[in-house]
Amino acid sequence: MKFFRKYIFPALYGLLVYFTIRLLHDTDLGQHFWKRDFYVNGIEMACSILVGYLAIYLFEWLFRYYDSHWGAPLSYRDVVRELIILVGVNLILVNVVFVPMDMALHVTQGIDELMPWADVADINMIPTLYAIIYYGVARSSTWLKAYVNNKMQLEKLTNDQLETELKFLKAQYHPHFLFNALNTIYFQMDEDVPGAKKSTELLSSLLRYQLYDQQQQVTVKQELEYLENYIRLQQIRASSRMQLNVHFDERLSDQLIYPLLLLPLVENAFKYIGGAYKITIDGSIIDGKFVFKVYNDVPVNMKAPDNYSGIGLENLSRRLQLLYPGKHQLNTGRENDHYTAVLELNI
């Protein structure tokens, strides 16, 4: 195939140009080229074959030049620029070879008009048409590769941006969580040193999970164990009036989930608890979905918006959009003296 493309195809290309020109020219004038002198047709075919080899060589050289200096065409502007250069080179080539040949043959045949306008049009238009066709066929694979590479680079850039944003969100969340945990320990230092030590141990365990133990995804069981440690930490500083009910479905075990999605809801429940001081936390499998519910009482006179503001919930909402696009539902809202948050995930 390589031999054919390099040594045979250029000759066929030149002959295709020649016979097309002869067909159009003879049809217009009512002539038959096979009735002409043999040496005339021989000279014309030899020059056409020469043009074929030179044209294919120049085209391939231009393609290598395009790729090495400009890169693969990625826009209409690049394609038009390449095509204009190729057509220009092709016009120069055919006029350098065909025009002197045509004039010389007219002299030898005793024709007074050395270069009829019909010959000028045929010599320039037909090779240009075939040059454009050759360009489209030869460069189509390059365009396809460029398109695929461009799409892959765009997807990689998008993924890199999302990953960077997720890392930023995690980095933003960690100090927020750490601030609340240290605040809990701070209140224990003066009154309950052993309790403060235990809180520090729990905090160390929580941070270890955040910094070392989590992979891209973790099992629901791991996430719930982490959550239980956080609840223990909060119970240390919670009022004795607090009524805490925690229930996790036994079927929640090896399902995979992205880490640190549940904590903001529980964290807000402890942060804004008031009134009857009741918190209910429930994790279940309902209709094949993981449903996580958090209910907490709030003071009746508390002037809080319907959705608690702060880094935690804003962070959670954005992470859900990135990690579970179209596969999650988060509903939060306050009604009278209680606040409810419900998160549904397709896992």
UniProtKB/TrEMBL annotation:
Keywords: Membrane, Transmembrane, Transmembrane helix. Pfam families: His_kinase (PF06580). The keyword Lipid metabolism does not apply. GO terms for molecular function: phosphorelay sensor kinase activity. One of its GO terms (cellular component) is membrane. Residues 164-241 form the Signal transduction histidine kinase internal region domain. The keyword rRNA-binding does not apply. InterPro entries: Bact_2-comp_sensor_kinase, HATPase_C_sf, Sig_transdc_His_kin_internal. The chain crosses the membrane at residues 7-25, 45-63, 83-101, 121-137. This is Signal transduction histidine kinase internal region domain-containing protein. It comes from Mucilaginibacter rubeus.
